[in-house]
Design brief:
- This protein is an alpha/beta fold and about 180 residues long.
- The protein has a single domain, classed as Type I PLP-dependent aspartate aminotransferase-like (Major domain) (Aspartate Aminotransferase, domain 2), CATH 3.40.640.10.
- It is about 50% helix and about 10% strand.
- It contains nine helices and four strands.
- The chain has a four-stranded mixed beta sheet.
- The two termini are about 35 Å apart.
- About 25% of the residues are buried.
- Its cofactor is pyridoxal 5'-phosphate.
- InterPro entries: Cys/Met-Metab_PyrdxlP-dep_enz (IPR000277), Cys_met_metab_PP (IPR054542), PyrdxlP-dep_Trfase (IPR015424), PyrdxlP-dep_Trfase_major (IPR015421).
- This is PLP-dependent transferase.
- It comes from Streptomyces rhizosphaericus.
Amino acid sequence: MTFVDLTDLTSLDAAFRPTTRAVFFEVFTNPLLDVLDIETIVAITHDHDALAVVDNTFATPVLIRPLELGADIVIHSATKYLAGHGRVLAGALAGGGPAMDAIAVMRRRLGTITTPHNAAAVIEGMSTLELRVDRASATADGWPPLRRDALVRTAQAGAQGRSLRRFHAIHQGHQPR
């Protein structure tokens, strides 16, 4: 396993080894919430014949759809935003192709992890997902400028001077609507 700063895409290309089979990354990094350039990361990954596996837990499919941006597999922690109520332990995978076929075989052999009750609770929570994401986004947009400025200063300090404008531009290119 190799850890790479994906805000510096030249480091990604240099990090590939003959044994690299996949690149796993989050849409928004945790804890700094840097927005990664999914399409470029996927292109570099595919140039090396590896899979692009994206954790889209923070963004949800409402904000960003990594499969439409070329990702091979997308992972969600359904416990969080998808279910929306913190009462379940569940996850979700989306994708296609041989990698997902292999996952389906393993699932048949090992069984499904979540319970029917948890699955039903996730489905119930997803009925309000778009509303919840839209409301959270509107609330963030409506923050008083003073709070937003403080948040930006805090994020800039935590991101060690990285340009937030650059991440904003990347995020705007990822949004499906």
